[in-house]
């Protein structure tokens, strides 16, 4: 059900690769809620993914950009403002990639060149996007900027590897930029989402176990990509104007649960 929460708002959505992507679901919901937006992804992902299908469905223009390239981002903002006919009201950063994870490197044997790439793609890109947006005066007063994070920023998770450091940096950038953009009434937040079966998620070793464990430990169960999109839409809407510089857990209660009855039963019921 749509509520017209984003009627008349304009945005840029990064990171829709295929229909499993969290960004894909956000784009569908933003369209349903009355927003117009441009879609962007790395040029290579565009060739592999199905973004044009989504663009057609949402009446969106697709503009390729490697989110680590300042030149690409400048071009993206220039073209987005042209296509949308004005400044933007929301931005979704839904980008993550670690060459160390992708190539199966152990945390005790990291390739540091790749570590820097992980940080650049998964965290610094968020800063770059906001820096370019600010320099180009591309954001309307009251705009809302959201990036996606994961619990491994706060608590160690085996196999999440150097992405944990990237997510910690991402959340810190949200706070620092939120402070900076506050005087313009612009909000910056991260949403820390449950493990979700997407291309990025499935790249983490033992990911199916994380999903199952989190599903069992979370009082409300895991949040789906679609539910994540619903939450992100509220953050883009005018209903959350005073929420900024937060890392908002969207995880069914996982982050606040130390142990559950189900685990006690499973481990101790025979003693
Ligand atoms: N899937 C999960 O379990 C989970 C949980 C919490 C947070 N997240 C976060 O959600 C976000 C979206 O991931 P997803 O799960 O939808 O997976 P996904 O694989 O569908 O999306 C990741 C996106 O990042 C894009 N990307 C990678 N390198 C890029 C670059 N250089 N420039 C521009 N884009 C680039 C990819 O093309 C892809 O579209 C990521 O930040 C991820 O870490 C995912």
From TrEMBL:
Reactions it catalyzes: a 2,3-saturated acyl-[ACP] + NAD(+) = a (2E)-enoyl-[ACP] + NADH + H(+)
A single BP term in Gene Ontology: fatty acid biosynthetic process
Gene Ontology MF terms: enoyl-[acyl-carrier-protein] reductase (NADH) activity
SUPFAM superfamilies: NAD(P)-binding Rossmann-fold domains
Assigned keywords, A-Z: Fatty acid biosynthesis, Fatty acid metabolism, Lipid biosynthesis, Lipid metabolism, NAD, Oxidoreductase
Entries under Pfam families matching the protein: adh_short_C2
Pathway noted in the entry: Lipid metabolism; fatty acid biosynthesis
Domain of life: Bacteria
Binding site for NAD(+): 15, 21-22, 95, 167
Catalytic residues (UniProt): 150 (proton acceptor), 160 (proton acceptor)
Record-listed E.C. numbers: 1.3.1.9
Keyword field contains Lipid metabolism: yes
Entry's family note: Belongs to the short-chain dehydrogenases/reductases (SDR) family. FabI subfamily.
Protein name: Enoyl-[acyl-carrier-protein] reductase [NADH]
């Amino acid at each position: 059900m749509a509520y017209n929460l984003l009627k008349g708002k304009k945005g840029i959505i990064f990171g829709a690769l295929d229909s499993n992507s969290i960004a894909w679901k956000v784009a569908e919901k933003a369209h349903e809620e009355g927003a117009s937006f441009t879609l962007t992804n790395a040029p290579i992902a565009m060739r592999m993914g199905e973004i044009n299908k989504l663009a057609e469905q949402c009446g969106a223009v697709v503009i390729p950009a490697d989110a680590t390239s300042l030149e690409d981002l400048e071009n993206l903002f220039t073209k987005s403002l042209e296509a949308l006919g004005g400044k933007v009201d929301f931005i979704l950063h839904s980008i993550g990639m670690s060459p160390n994870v992708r190539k199966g490197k152990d945390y005790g044997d990291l390739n540091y060149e790749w570590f820097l790439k992980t940080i650049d793609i998964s965290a610094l890109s968020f800063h770059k996007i906001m820096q370019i947006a600010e320099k180009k005066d591309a954001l309307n007063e009251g705009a809302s900027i959201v990036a996606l994070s994961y619990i491994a920023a706060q608590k160690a998770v085996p196999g999440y590897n150097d992405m944990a450091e990237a997510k910690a940096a991402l959340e810190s950038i949200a706070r620092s930029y939120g402070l900076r953009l506050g005087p313009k009434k612009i909000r910056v937040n991260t949403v820390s989402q449950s493990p979700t079966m997407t291309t990025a998620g499935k790249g983490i070793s033992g990911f199916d176990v994380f999903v199952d464990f989190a599903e069992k430990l979370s009082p409300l169960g895991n949040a789906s990509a679609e539910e994540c999109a619903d939450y992100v839409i509220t953050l883009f809407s005018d209903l959350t104007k005073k929420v900024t510089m937060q890392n908002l857990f969207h995880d069914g209660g996982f982050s606040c649960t130390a142990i559950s009855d189900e685990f006690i039963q499973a481990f101790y019921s025979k003693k």
